[in-house]
Amino acid sequence: MTLYILRRVGITVLMVFIVVTLAFFLVALMPNDVTSAILGPDATREARDALREEMGLNDPALVRYFSFIGGLIQGDLGTSYVSRQPVVTQVLDRMPVTLTLSIGGIILTTVLGVVLGVIAATRGGWVDSAIRGSAGVVQAIPNFWLAVLLVLVFAVNLKLLPASGWTPLTEDPMEFFRAATLPLLAIGLAATAAVVRQARVAMLDVQARDYMQTLRATGLPEWRVIWIHGLRNASIPVLTVIGLQFVALFGGAVLIEQVFALPGVGSLVVASVNVGDMPMILGVVVALSVVILLMNLLIDILYGVLNPKARLA
Amino acid sequence: MQSPLTSLSDPFPLHRTHIMERTHMRSRKLRITTGVATLGIATLVLTSCAGTDSSSSSDGSFEVTAASLEGAPTFDPVKYMNGAAYDYAAAAYETLVMYDDEGNLLPGIATAWEYTTPTEMTMDIRSDVVFEDGSGLDAALVAANLERYRVTPGSYQARLNSIDTITVVDEDSLALTLNTADQSLPQAFSLSVGMMVSQAAIDDPDLLLTDTYGSGPWVLDTYAEDSEYHYIRNPEYSGPLDVAVDELNFTVITDLTAQLNALLAGDVDLISAQWSQRETAEAQGFAALSSESNVGGIWLFDRAGAVVPALADVRVRQAINYAIDREAVGNALWSEYQRPSSSVFGIYTTAYEESLDDYYEYDPEKAKELLAEAGYADGFDLPILARSMFGEIQRLEAALPYLEAIGINPTVEDRTNDYFDAMTNQEYGAAQGQQNGGTNSYVNMSNMLAPNAQLNPFKTDDPALTALIQDAAGELDAEAAETKWKAVNEAVVEAAWFAPVAFYHTHTAWDAEKLDGVSFAAGQTYPLPFEWRPASE
Fold this sequence. Notes:
Order of helices and strands of chain A: HHHHHHHHHHHH
Largest sheet of chain A: none
Number of helices of chain A: 12
Shape of chain A: globular
Mean pLDDT of chain A: 84
Largest sheet of chain B: 7 strands, mixed
Oligomer: heterodimer
Strand content of chain A: under 5%
């Protein structure tokens, strides 16, 4: 198991390096007019050229790349062109919001998806049809559209929850949950459908196995047969889907942050792309890459725990 | 009873089925009960935690929360320009000069100013200014501030290019010597380059990255970057403003639809809006207001024909102006909230002349005649530099069919990420653009007409026009200057250097049951908070 984990960690580090390199050169090739964003539209050509020189934007891309990698190894992601603040600080300040959305969303997705999928598989009949039908409808709805709908219903019309804003959990737990409810629903519901379907199929497959009948025959309560033994075996393919959904949730968080005006890295990277703030763009790419790849690593490890055969792969 | 081992083909033996049915019924009841209880409790909790009135806090102070399209990248005034973020600086810093809703200049920190000659200006300042760090202001500190703005890259740095030297006459007065006649300095001093920071910030400008060092009506209290900014009333403020807001909050909401939702939900008291959102807010019982701000259109840069030979002929440029149905395009883009115009000088400038608005009335037949006279009866290709920000490409595309109708073949070249570079590199003879209508004729001229102007990339220098400009810029008598600037405007329109479509409005909407005193200062695209007060007053 240790060797398995070490192998996965090594692959993760390599993939972070590859992603960061690709991102750097893609951004470097992007025509950049950040000096206009800093100096305003009335700035003279001379002023913009001088600022570009001062910021090192005229240096060759390769020179800037090695400088960036050197800083990255030391944990320095550079300084924002626009705010002149360390990128690391700004990314770390905003990452908790995006992580809350993504992790909260995946927890909601997992719990809801697994529970509904198992119920659909074990109950059958109209319950199964209703769950599958609902999952299909929700899956067809884009999460940003769902977000807008939730805002209109619960915030604008019913005034039960806020339409925007974010309160850290440590500052005011009640306000945190009020602010987080609609974004989490918006981001989690759409992904739930995929998990429901996978959990249902997996549980149907497990239900048909002989060992399930054996377990029942030994006198175990039905709930233990289904929710402990059956679910453990059904969870392996479900875990894969959850891992994929986490990546999708991260991407969805960018849109959700725009709809709900949440101060996460998604809205940070959108603002940075609009003005060409290259260090900030790369900083967010690095941060998100690390998080996503760590999540995949965690899933790989969980997979190895649940399925010993996987450790030999 | 069957042995469990012999019942593998029947997973649910009869006795087990009976027990399970009873268990199932009890579980079902429990589930229903639990579900109803949970729903009830949740409803109670949520409704008991409804948001508080965002315009007043529990201690009776008047608190206002406004939505902003962007956060504050810094608290250094040098980085600020007219726009959504301007209020972050305007709240905390006093300017040398102030202005009202009509653009009339008023004393701020400067109590008086005078041009003794076209290139010499004197200024007297208040002696009772106290910064939030407790330090005071004198003429030497004003000079230090202006010197910093002259050399620090910033949004309005170019506005101070005409200053040659700054002399401290005494503790309360200073003299500016200019390298060219420039009547726009007082207006410049009403903007961010007129915002005074304390000596501590002059000594270490990096302090301004994370905090304010001003003497304005409010002081920055706390903030979460790019999220929320909280200002409190400055007890040391000694300026002429009588502000009513005790706590001023800005919530960053970068999407206009999200801002509208936040207003409707009661999360914020005031928002920016486009005209469609403004009307939605009004339909929901909120107040709204708009102000003419920017002019949009096609800028015809290549007046010498270097890139697009056809544009060298004034008849071709005039034909483009005659070809566009400004009323139709303006209505389509901005509904009733626009003013078609053939001129690029806004209503708040002395150069504005109403009769020039319809100088080029829509006349496609005349446009074709002019093209034919100029030798372009079959039209010509016209690549137009564009950028996909603020809906600008969509606006441009609304006008293109009119050019096609007279035989011109326009193409949109989206260079969003290097729009200004492409412009200054003279890669295109024409560009889609928008420009603030302005409050000062000299400023508009500097931005659009001067040979070194940003929006004159081909450095067109018409001797006759230059003479008119110099005459107007050097005129000290206000009435005479106004006449001369109108002459400049007329000359530019006749030369068809630009093909503007319309001056359009920026909008704001707010909760009038909580907030009063909302207005747009001349040329501003976001309401300043100075006059906001409780609706009950």
